[in-house]
Hints:
- The protein is an all-alpha fold and about 180 residues long.
- Helix content is about 50%, strand content about 0%.
Amino acid sequence: MANVNLASVVLRNAMRTQLMGIRNSSDMITAKIGKREVVGHGWNGLPVYADRIDYPMPAIRFKEATPDIVALREKEKGCWKKLSVQEKKALYRASFCQTFSEIKYPTGEWKICLGAGLIAASLSMIVMMLMRTFVYDPIPETFDEEHQKAQLKRMLTLEVGGIEGLSSKWDYENNRWK
């Protein structure tokens, strides 16, 4: 059964790649990354770009090489003191999308999550109050304290659960709990 499923997946992927005009996996990767330079292995073994603090060196550069960037990369091979600050920043931005401080900077996404959670809680409370008002019957009178005490007294009189239950914890000689 597993071999049949595996074979159907392989066949489906092969048909999909033929329809797209892609012959093998390297063509598929090239189709995804374009003309960006592959500079490493990548955190998942594939040439993908992701800004991550735990894996600071992505497998491909952020931008495709333009003539300006190619000229800067040639200049970079020489003395770095000859590069201006703007050229260094342009080289960095060609390879990376964000700096570490930009990656670590809070996005404020927690506000959306908190707001959505509070809205969901509010809606559920409104639904609960509407259900209590229009759908549910009123609470039976046996739920008040007077009726519960009478029920407990009746259970003790009938000695309900005399071995391990409620009556086993009542002292019948002194009329109090053990």
